[in-house]
Design a protein that fits this description.
Ribosomal Protein L9, domain 1, elongated, 5 strands, about 250 residues, Methane Monooxygenase Hydroxylase, Chain G, domain 1, mainly alpha
Length: about 250
């Protein structure tokens, strides 16, 4: 009994030391993904060290569910998948439960209760990991939606809108409105279309190939050009830049 009590006390002290070390001395890596991955496995190791804490395996499963959102980003970094609202609601529910448990234990515990303090610390680490996964998931989605505005313009196709939630569509509209106001204010009210010159142009005219049947295309001087699939044209860059972003035309460089 004395041996078990000493070992139990050792695991509690070891877990507290690991928590303090990873909280105040995080690993420094040039690759943020590697740092986050190492911190995640540090948390898993901490749960194994703190096996005496009840429901530690449950917290590990909850963190794994939040990590699945980050793994989805890695699997398709340039493609916006449908928002996993049910998964996010479940993660938030688990976070509220852990926060309530911590608040209850902190208010009712004594300063000398080492085991309870360790439990509170482990829950706090789990909360931090779950919060970071949620924020990374939402931030990545906003970056993809912002890139859509620059690539496809202010009007998105129904397929792209289907992958966005209602709140994300509202954010896209506000971002488009703010971007349009900024472009119209450049040059003392003259305005500048930043969508046309995302990269510095090397020539005024470029050769393009039509990737699909588009139909009639009228240039600024009134000339009407029929854009059919696999047809090539020599057009002014400023007039066909938008069609290139939309995937209708392809810039022929060779």
């Amino acid at each position: 009994k004395n041996i078990f009590g000493a070992f139990n006390s050792f695991t509690l002290r070891a877990s507290r030391f690991l928590l303090a070390y990873w909280a105040y001395f995080p690993p420094f890596f040039s690759n943020a993904h590697k740092a986050h991955k190492l911190e995640y496995w540090n948390f898993r190791l901490l749960l194994k060290v703190s096996f005496c804490i009840k429901s530690s395996s449950t917290m590990s499963l909850w963190v794994d569910k939040a990590l699945e959102l980050v793994k989805e980003i890695k699997r398709s970094p340039n493609h916006l998948q449908p928002l996993k609202e049910e998964t996010m609601r479940e993660i938030l529910k688990n976070m509220h439960f852990l926060f309530a448990e911590n608040q209850r234990d902190v208010e009712s515990s004594a300063n000398t209760d080492v085991e309870l303090h360790t439990t509170v610390h482990v829950r706090h680490v789990a909360l931090t990991q779950m919060k970071r996964c949620l924020l990374a998931y939402l931030f990545h989605r906003l970056q993809c939606i912002k890139e859509m505005r620059w690539s496809f313009g202010s009007v998105l196709s129904p397929d792209l809108k289907a992958s966005m939630s209602e709140q994300e569509q509202q954010w896209f509209q506000r971002y488009s409105s703010n971007l349009a106001d900024y472009m119209s204010s450049i040059g003392g009210g003259v305005g500048l279309d930043l969508m046309k010159y995302r990269n510095p142009p090397k020539s005024l005219y470029i050769q393009v190939r039509c990737l699909e049947d588009y139909g009639d295309f009228e240039t600024e001087d009134g000339t009407c050009i029929v854009l059919t699939k696999n047809s090539t044209h020599f057009l002014e860059r400023s007039q066909c830049e938008k069609l290139i972003h939309q995937g209708i035309l392809q810039h022929v460089t060779t």
